[in-house]
Amino acid sequence: MSSIWALRYRIRAAKGQGNGDKKQGGVFSLRSGIGTRIIRFIFQPVHGKELRLVLPRWSLIHSVLILSAVVTAWFAGRFWVLPFAASFSFAGLVFCTRSSWTPAGAFGWANTVTAFRLLGITALSLHYPFLEPAYVAWVGLVLLMMDGLDGWLARRSNQASEFGEYFDKETDAFFLLVLCMLALLGHRLGYWVLVLGLLRYVFVILLCFLRPNLPQEKRSTRARIIYGFIMGAILVSFLPYPDFYRPLVVIGTVGLVLSFTTDFLFSLSQNSELRAK
């Protein structure tokens, strides 16, 4: 009898050990799978079809990070959190897509101009407390003019790429957000101006959840014109002419909200058509 109970005990122990190994192996394999993906994403550059999947995902992560940084900066009273979070996110984008910066693989002059623009925006946001408002307006105007230069260089030198498109439009969105935050902190405009700076990021998050299977959104000529108008209006707000710049900013805000709403509804209609097919 004792030998039978001993045999049963050994069988149960073996089963328990097997189940434990299986569970442990499952957890280990899960962790190793996630770890492998993270390591691969960091150390192996993406390209080709994989790039088209990574860029929208990065844009979503970037939008969530920026929104979190704005909330943290606002409630903690630490504005530097925003430029540091943005710099970290952009650095990740540049590093992970290093084999697909341009069709030739090099970083290119157009992306270099965008990178200098991003550095200027970051420096402007960090040094704002020590700058005169008029200086912010003039530096912002130079950075805005550089926005047209990088696109011209990309087309002229045949260096246009999907990376460059994302790099440029996300830098534009960050520039708008920084100017809106600076205008608010300097009491040039009210809290409503944050709607302008956060529209792009809310737009990206909503589109990701409502139309995940669609290709990336395209930037229309209408959106570019409205963007240039609203940027000029906000830059003028750093000059001592409130009766002049406030109506311009309000008009630009209405135009930008309508533009994003139009693009959003159009994207939803595309999503419905794809599902119908």
Task: Fill in the keyword field for this structure.
mainly alpha; Four Helix Bundle (Hemerythrin (Met), subunit A); 0% strand
Summarize the structure.
The chain has 277 residues and is an all-alpha fold. It has helices at residues 2-43, 49-76, 81-96, 109-127, 133-156, 162-185, 194-210, 221-236, 242-276.
- Structural class label: mainly alpha
Radius of gyration: 25 Å
The share of residues in helices is: over 70%
Order of helices and strands: HHHHHHHHH
Beta-strand segment tally: 0
Q: Report the biggest beta sheet as strand number plus sense, adding barrel if it closes.
A: none
CATH architecture of the largest domain: Up-down Bundle
SSE blueprint:
Elements: H1 2-43, H2 49-76, H3 81-96, H4 109-127, H5 133-156, H6 162-185, H7 194-210, H8 221-236, H9 242-276
Helix pairs in contact: 2-3, 2-6, 2-7, 3-6, 4-5, 4-6, 5-6, 5-8, 6-7, 7-9, 8-9
Walk me through what this model shows.
- The structure is a single chain.
- α2 packs across α7 (194-210) and α5 (133-156) runs antiparallel to α6.
- The chain has 2 domains: 1-44; 58-276, Four Helix Bundle (Hemerythrin (Met), subunit A), CATH 1.20.120.
- The protein has helices at residues 2-43, 49-76, 81-96, 109-127, 133-156, 162-185, 194-210, 221-236, 242-276.
- The protein has 9 helices and no strands.
- Residues 1-32 have low confidence and may be disordered.
- Helices cover 80% and strands 0% of the residues.
- The radius of gyration is 25 Å and the shape is globular.
- It is mainly alpha-helical and 277 residues long.
